[in-house]
């Protein structure tokens, strides 16, 4: 305690010194500007007598007006700074209270905490990423705990948090949402904005994601059996080894998405856009409502196709992807940072992954 007090005293003395130095500077500026400067300006002219005194007074008035304007600007700047400090303190207090409410035993209080955080995210752009991190952490903790169980749809506070996240108007590429491993069976995420989110290992069985914004989202190993993804935007998404049995993918945009080793058995692919979609080792057996014209736009290699489909399509793109269809194991693709180069992996039945650095291809 003594050490802390000893540190405070020098800081107080420093603040007082700054105040007195600043005050002295203001006085000197006023003396020079109002007292000396007008006299010096007049002395540089050829005027004398009454005209000299009148001109000096005019210069002095101008100097006083300039000082008044400067004082106004400084005062306005300090006032604005104080307002911002007050607003920041207010947001900080609201944030702390909202986070505290999330841990309350009463459901209505927890819901209040969720919606309070949403209001903070809307009011303060700089706090938006932090609010989203808190909400996603809240969802993960709630759904991964042993007490949560395996409900057919999320509990009310979890669904509310998902709704808040999904309807946000601002996204930050540098702060992607992280919901990996969350148990969200039966969740309502219609038109949700989850671009670039980390949803690996998430359970979204029978969830509604129709018309959701899911561009670049990572769904690796996700459980999406029976999910409704009608009209969803999944350009560039990673759904490798995802479970999509019986999912509704009608009108879904899967352009350039990775679905290698994904299971789409019994999925509906009516009017699904598969342009540039990687379906290496994917299981489409039993998939319905699609045409060979759709498959012709996709990248196929070792793909398991339904009965009645031209089997020559199965390995159509193996050569251009530097993949040997005779080798065993499911195919997985690892994109480079630039996204133009793909490295080919093989995953054996025992879980072993075989990686050859020389096995890669460019788009």
Description:
The chain has 363 residues and is mainly alpha-helical. The protein has 6 helices and 3 strands. The protein has 2 domains: 96 residues, no CATH class; 188 residues, E3 ubiquitin-protein ligase SopA (Pectate Lyase C-like). A 3-stranded antiparallel sheet has the order 1-2-3, with no helix packed on it. The longest helix is centred in the N-terminal third of the chain and has 54 residues. The two termini are 65 Å apart.
Total tally of structural domains: 2
Radius of gyration: 33 Å
Percent helix: 25-40%
Distance between the termini: 65 Å
Which topology of the largest domain does CATH recognise?
Pectate Lyase C-like
Number of helices: 6
The number of distinct β-strands equals: 3
Broad structural category: mainly alpha
Spatial strand sequence of the major β-sheet: 1-2-3
Average residue pLDDT: 86
Kindly estimate the percentage of residues that lie in beta strands according to DSSP: 5-15%
Q: State the CATH architecture of the largest domain.
A: 3 Solenoid
User: What is the 3D form?
Assistant: elongated
- Model regions low in confidence, pLDDT < 50 over at least 5 residues: 1-5
Q: Please identify the top-level CATH class of the largest domain.
A: Mainly Beta
Can you write the helix and strand succession as a string? HHHHHHEEE
Protein name: Pentapeptide repeat-containing protein
Pfam families: Pentapeptide
Organism: Leptolyngbya iicbica LK
Transmembrane segments: 20-42, 62-80
